[in-house]
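Quick one: structure tokens for this chain, please?
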Amino acid sequence: MKISKVLNPDSSRKERITNELWKHNGSFHPVEIEQFILESLDDKGTLQAGLIAQTWWGALEIQYLWVSEQMRGKGCGKKLVLEAEALALERNCHMAYVDTFNFQARNFYQKLNYKEYGSLAGYARKFERHYLSKLLK
């Protein structure tokens, strides 16, 4: 077996491997991944906050949530997460999950009824990553 190293691969290289994995997974259950982005823009069209997520196998996977400094604490992040959950429910999802670091938003997600199911310490030898999930109604 020959292994080749590809540093900083382009999206088509990563997609090739991902597609093969999902083809394998699809032999157990159909795979329908639907990605989406939610954005909050000001009157000038400047990005104030954004959420990147996908739904698959009845789950909402929140991959990234960012809120600008000036919008933090004003409910913007909460609105984005609730909108993502509503979209997930429209797609017949029954659960949601996310991960966040100890310096990020664990308490924020807990206030939205996400429960921690695990953590992993040691990122940059000083941070802890928290894994949270929530049942959707």
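Residues 32-135 form a domain with the Aminopeptidase fold (CATH 3.40.630.30).
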